[in-house]
Amino acid sequence: MSNKDFVLSVEGLTVSFDGFKAVDDLSFYVEEGEIRVIIGPNGAGKTTVLDLICGRTKSTEGSIKFRGKDLSKMTEHEIVHAGVGRKFQNPSVYEDLTVFENFELSFPRGRSVFGALGFQRDAEVLKAIEETAEMVFLQEHLGMQADLLSHGQKQWLEIGMLLIQQPSLLMLDEPVAGMSVAERKKTAELLLKITKDRSVIVIEHDMNFVADIADRVTVLHQGKVLSEGSMDHVQKDPKVIEVYLGH
Amino acid sequence: MFDGYTGSELMAIFAMQGFAGLILFSVLVLMALGLAIIFGQMGVINMAHGEFMILGAYVTYLTSLFFETYLPGLSSIYFFVAIVLAFIAAASLGAFVEWALIRRLYKRPLDTLLATWGLSLILQQTYRSVFGAREKGVSLPDWMMGSIPVTDMVEIPINGIIVMVLTLLITLSVYFIMQRSQWGAKVRAVVQNRPMAAAVGINTSIVDRMTFALGCGIAGIAGSAFTMIGSTGPTSGQLYIVDTFMVVVFGGAANLMGTIASAFTISQAQTILEFFMSGSIAKVLTLGMIVVILMLRPQGLFTLKIRR
Amino acid sequence: MSNYSKQKFLSPAELGGFIVLAILLFVVLPLSVDDFRLNLIGKYLSYSFVAMGLVLCWGYGGILSLGQGVFFGIGGYCMAMFLKLEASSVENTAIQSTPGIPDFMDWNQLTELPWFWEPFNSLGLSLIAVILVPGLFAFLIGLAMFKRRVGGVYFAIITQAVAAILTILIVGSQGMTGGINGITDLRTLLGWDIRTDEAKVILYFVCVTFVFICLFLCQFVLRSKLGRLLVAVRDTEERVRFSGYNVDNFKIFIFTFAAMLSAIGGALFTLQVGFMSPSFVGIVPSIEMVIFCAVGGRLSLLGAVYGALAVNFAKTTLSEAIPELWLFALGGMFIAVVSIFPNGLMGLYNTYISAPVNRFYHAAVRFINKDKPVETLSEPLSEPESESTLGAK
């Protein structure tokens, strides 16, 4: 297989902390427009994989190719500029700023020091913000301070902050954690809507939600790929059953 | 700077200056130990740490006065009594300060820094009002004054050895308290997961207070040692605070061996450099070196863990 | 356009605050105090530049520098070096063994001007140096520290070490810097005697003018997207990185900007007081400058000015009357501003004066308009005050 068919190719990725290999010789490939869900028991290295891709942690070995660029050699903001967006496990938004300002800071313009000094809220910015806000169900809350939002709304806000960056790879760490059933449903619809023109990697524990959205599922266990394929496939894989139900 | 010295003379100078640095090293280790316990275990920067040291120094001074006046026959052992009293005084003040001020400021490290600076100013002025602005010197008992000749050029001061041994004992006991005792286990539990520690029945606020008091108490002992190398004034502590911070960050906070190694490096570099150039330039070089090293290794020289 | 995206350079309340301060500094104080006191106030005001820088850097950006005296001092020294050279003309120093160089150099057996003094023969170069030398120095420190992700208390301690180093160096190289006494006996600026009462009054107005220029500059920075980014960096630095910003550069910028502001203050200090010495550079003066900002309110630019005035006024008054009390008071202030009123004087003003007045105003408006339909209610007097929402955590 040539790398060109994939948005993201992770090959031989290894990271060790004090000799403990959190991710061990991991390889996987994400296709254009695919929704990939990563599942696995606690400590399997799911979040670490996202950390490695977005540059939060530096790998010990291996390569992370994103559209031909090697992300493992780039800094966090360069990776964002290349088109990778990351949502954290706990919603991470600017709590002291309004929803509008949260979107504004995420808008991909004026990212240098002097660019930020000269940044103007012109029609383009306002249009992008209003469209995004509507997409993540926050159009009524633009003037509200972000720490007053509910937990689920903060999750949406963070997703919206990523969307406004127009990333071609979106990585979501437990996007429906702490959401009500109704909110989960809305979020699943949202994800299906926003993946039309981009690839998404999702970490999730909620199996119903995974079944709703996943194209393919990768099961991690102790930093390695245990199984990969459709939801059906991995659910029937005896190794997966062993890890989840065994012991 | 080494011009005009023969090789054996240089060795002797290094050795002599090295031993002369022993007390400075001991003071720095004890100061840094206290600061590192507090900073490493609780994330609190105690800018008043130097004033806790000076409290110990004043207590030592008062004890020596007391022995001279009332118990002249026992004055040769006053120092050991003074150490205990200095520890008790500094630890009690520490416990009080933690209760009155510090516990309200956890998780706001920068604010704690400013508040403890304020505390240090208040303590300085208190010392000045109580003891006067003039520096107080302590006279050592005769048997501690001499030195042991090792070669014809190298002599080791006896008080240096005593302070050194004392420092070693305290360091070892701190290690055992932190790593081996039940109480140390509680402290470490609180550091790792405060809510969980509270949930399993550890009184976290008592643990905090005791930890802070212990750190301050050790600073008090450092004050006792300090009386041997300098006279005690209201602002003497301030001269040591930056050095001590440098020791702590240089060694990587919360790392006992790192703290000792870095105190050793810094005190030795400073005393040896001082022989060859003016004290102030030696200080600039030492501070500058630490700043550069911290730039290259912000996590400190002796930390191995990747912490997130 | 809807309400949430509107953005004014100054909200009505802020505009009011600026006007009140302008009247106070330009009119009320010059008319009500004698020349000596006015000069003293001018000296206090030169500290307000440091405090403004700290509002941006510490209050908004969360970067606490305990070494602002370094930049205040370098700015002041740059100014003092020019003035000293002018005062050390060959005629003035004819009795020296080497005429034409500053007196302290002569006392220290220097026979020619050190190379780094040469540019300070020119006023233009000196004024550029006032801003650029501290700016460059801060830039280098920031570059070294923030690129290595040194922050928080580590950064604070390192800035303190820098202050210690610089003081030792200045004191140590007496022949080139004037040592512990500093650079004294400054007389004229391009032939204009700065020691007369008249000159001091003029310099006071120059200082106040610079206060307002810098206030507006800071306001511009805070009102730009960069201002909101600073808050974001302070609270959630990682998110900012993953929104595609090179956070280190923003920190370097704001630290450098704050240093340049301090330097302007230092230069104005030298002009008004007539000397500069290491006693404004070291650890103790540097950390005292933090209290000016904290007392005024670490999130308020106007607070920075009031804080510098109030603390220094208290210092002069108390140390004249009861010297022992001053350190107790100063120590108490440090403790109070972190534990009791973290937003300083401006926080108290907003809570106890501005907010009740606003509530009363709105109640009055509602009462007057109670028969009219809701839509015609007038706009609120002020936008919700940023102090309350951006409060330090």
UniProtKB/TrEMBL annotation, chain A:
GO MF annotation terms: ATP binding; ATP hydrolysis activity
CDD domains assigned to the protein according to its UniProt record, in alphabetical order: ABC_Mj1267_LivG_branched
InterPro entries: AAA+_ATPase, ABC_AA/LPS_Transport, ABC_transporter-like_ATP-bd, ABC_transptr_urea_ATP-bd_UrtD, BCA_ABC_TP_C, P-loop_NTPase
Pfam families reported for this sequence: ABC_tran, BCA_ABC_TP_C
Record GO cellular component, one term: plasma membrane
The keyword ATP-binding appears for this protein: yes
Domain annotation ABC transporter: ranges: 8-247
Cross-referenced Gene3D superfamilies: P-loop containing nucleotide triphosphate hydrolases
Domain of life: Bacteria
Keywords: ATP-binding, Nucleotide-binding, Transport
Protein name: Branched-chain amino acid transport system ATP-binding protein
Biological source species: gamma proteobacterium HTCC2207
UniProt lineage: Bacteria, Pseudomonadati, Pseudomonadota, Gammaproteobacteria, Cellvibrionales
Automatic annotation (TrEMBL), chain B:
InterPro entries in the cross-refs: ABC_transp_permease, ABC_UrtB_bac, BCAA_transport_permease
Matches recorded under Pfam families: BPD_transp_2 (PF02653)
Residue intervals passing through the bilayer: 12-40, 52-71, 77-97, 156-178, 212-233, 239-263, 275-296
Topology term for the membrane: Multi-pass membrane protein
Compartments reported by the entry: Cell inner membrane
Coiled coil segments of this chain: none
Keywords: Amino-acid transport, Cell membrane, Membrane, Transmembrane, Transmembrane helix, Transport
GO MF: transmembrane transporter activity
BP term (GO), one: amino acid transport
GO cellular component, one term: plasma membrane
Signal peptide as annotated in the record: none
Homology family: Belongs to the binding-protein-dependent transport system permease family. LivHM subfamily.
PANTHER family xref list: ABC TRANSPORTER PERMEASE PROTEIN, BRANCHED-CHAIN AMINO ACID TRANSPORT SYSTEM PERMEASE PROTEIN LIVH
UniProt-recorded name of the protein: ABC transporter permease protein
From TrEMBL, chain C:
Chief location of this protein within or outside the cell: membrane
Transmembrane segments: 15-33, 45-63, 123-146, 153-172, 201-222, 249-269, 289-313, 325-349
Keyword tRNA processing: no
InterPro entries: ABC_transp_permease (IPR001851), ABC_transptr_urea_perm_UrtC (IPR017778), LivM-like (IPR043428)
Record bears the keyword Transmembrane: yes
Gene Ontology CC, one term: plasma membrane
Keywords (A to Z) from UniProt: Cell membrane, Membrane, Transmembrane, Transmembrane helix
Annotated membrane topology: Multi-pass membrane protein
Compartments reported by the entry: Cell inner membrane
GO MF annotation list: branched-chain amino acid transmembrane transporter activity
Name of the protein: Putative high-affinity branched-chain amino acid transport system permease protein
Protein source organism: gamma proteobacterium HTCC2207
